[in-house]
Design goal:
The chain has two domains: about 210 residues, NAD(P)-binding Rossmann-like Domain (Rossmann fold, 3-Layer(aba) Sandwich); about 230 residues, NAD(P)-binding Rossmann-like Domain (Rossmann fold). The chain contains 19 helices and 17 strands. It starts with about 30 loop residues before the first helix and ends in a 12-residue tail after the last strand.
Length: about 475
């Protein structure tokens, strides 16, 4: 932490009083709740994206007065009309209700929003840049603005997943320098990692998971516990220090990435020996200590592929070794190329080496089914793999993605939301995202076109007479067990 600016008056957090002893609690929980719900203490949400929009909605639904802050003119215009640019259930209704009751304000002035609010929640993302390091650009900009508008007694919470140490070594020094105030003495600093699943984010906040809270000290932690208890019905888990909370959040994603990599390895193994991976998986998971995940074409989104990179980045800083985490990333990153190689086998003996007359249809641009989020979608890598083969045309269908700036520049790639148009006249179909619209496809729907099911979501029984393959099984008509030679 940096020292407070001596030009600022030193006052002990006037909004809430707290004893220096953690065991002695002088905060009135009912008073805090009353002031937040009355709008006397306003909540500013910095970033109305995948995390900020549902978080703002949860506070609005709890009766709070919310200031939505964003730099995007499109996002701000939509929010001012009671709409979100993201199809997250419940957000539009919460925004519209907040506007109607005059409890929802839209700001593009980051510093002003800090000055006018009590709780500031930093919900902008931290992604992994091309130079193999975290991109803190948005977080640093928001932290600086918050510091310039910070008042005695205010509360700041960082919410994105970050490398351990980010809150204390990067964010807090910026805020203290800009404000001249000191955490624990003059304001409260928290780390509260988001724990949402797109498509049910509001429910995750309000009902499914407890909040994880850690503070710059016991005063901050206790204030955080009281405040976040207002929206997290599952309660609040107070972690002893901020670095532990930052690390906990990364563990959640790394666990899933490693497990998916294991599933991918075992699925490929089963294909080699003629075993139905899915049947073996279901049987294995009946044992309570086994929890195999599902294999697939790739791991996408701004969470699971990114968190292991934060772990590896931090490990490198301390000359540590996280070999399993690193290997799992490599396994999952290799899946798009593997699945494309398996898919083109369905075209043989029609073609052996030349694909210049082939049209391919990829079902799903979103990183998973049920969402419109395309960030780090494995479909982009699948497209590159087919472009290496110099196919004639690549059609990409997604029921929830209407436009994509990346594909506009891509050669021989067409994005469509019309499934029939995407399938008609194609030579090969690949399922990449498990949208519900694809689960009910039949051989009649695809008119005999070879299909590779990269998520194993189709009813395999009805494709037994089709040119069909799926991850974890391979070609469905070639499921005879391989003769393994035992020593």
């Amino acid at each position: 932490m940096v020292s407070s600016d001596t030009n600022h008056p030193k006052k002990k957090c006037p909004e809430l009083t707290y004893s220096a002893e953690p065991s002695s609690n002088h905060i009135s929980e009912s008073e805090v709740a009353k002031k937040i719900r009355s709008g006397e203490l306003k909540v500013a949400i910095y970033g109305l994206g995948h995390v900020g929009s549902p978080m703002a909605s949860a506070w609005l639904r709890a009766g709070a007065h919310v200031i939505g802050v964003d730099k995007s003119p499109t996002v701000l215009e939509n929010a001012s009309k009671g709409k979100s640019h993201l199809p997250e259930p419940g957000v539009n209704e919460a925004f519209a209700s907040g506007l109607a009751t005059k409890r929802f304000e839209i700001y593009n002035d980051l510093e002003k929003a800090s000055h006018h609010s009590y709780l500031k929640m930093v919900c902008v993302p931290v992604l992994f840049s091309d130079n193999n390091s975290p991109d803190f650009t948005a977080v640093k900009e928001v932290s600086s603005a918050i510091g310039k508008g910070l008042k005695n007694g205010d509360v700041v919470a960082l919410n994105p997943s970050v490398p351990p140490g980010t809150t204390e070594d990067l964010v807090l020094p910026i805020i203290e320098k800009e404000s001249g105030l000191k955490a624990e003495d003059d304001f409260y600093m928290l780390y509260n990692p988001e724990r949402i699943y797109e498509g049910r984010a509001i429910k995750d906040i309000e009902e499914r998971y407890p909040a994880i809270i850690s503070g710059a000290g016991p005063r901050s932690t206790e204030v955080g516990r009281i405040i976040f208890s207002l929206i997290f019905k599952k309660g609040v888990i107070c972690v002893s220090n901020i670095r532990t909370a930052e690390t906990e959040k990364l563990f959640e994603g790394v666990y899933r990435d490693v497990n998916i990599a294991l599933a991918n390895e075992l699925a490929k193994f089963c294909e080699k020996i003629g075993v139905n991976f899915w049947e073996a998986r279901d049987a294995a998971n009946s044992q309570p200590f086994c929890h195999l995940h599902k294999p697939g074409v790739g791991v996408g989104g701004a969470c699971i592929p990114v968190y292991p990179q934060f772990i590896l980045y931090s490990a490198e800083q301390v000359k540590g070794n996280c070999a399993i985490t690193k290997l799992s990333r490599a396994v999952n990153d290799a899946m798009p190329a593997f699945c494309v190689n398996e898919a083109i086998k369905l075209l043989k003996p029609r073609t052996e080496t030349s694909f210049d007359g082939i049209t391919v249809t990829l079902l799903g641009l979103a990183f998973r089914g049920g969402v419109s989020d395309t960030r780090m979608s494995p479909t982009y890598q699948v497209i590159k793999e087919f472009q290496k083969l110099q196919v004639k045309e690549i059609r990409v269908h997604d029921p929830m993605v209407r436009a994509d700036p990346t594909l506009v520049q891509a050669q021989n790639v067409v994005l469509s939301s019309n499934l029939n148009d995407s399938i008609n006249g194609t030579n090969l179909i690949m399922i990449i995202a498990d949208h519900n619209e694809y689960r009910t496809l039949t051989p009649k729907d695809i008119d005999g076109v070879p299909i590779y099911d990269g998520r194993s979501i189709l009813d395999r029984k009805i494709f037994v007479h089709s040119t069909y393959a799926t991850i974890g099984i391979g070609t469905i008509n070639n499921m005879e067990p391989t003769n393994l030679k035992m020593a």
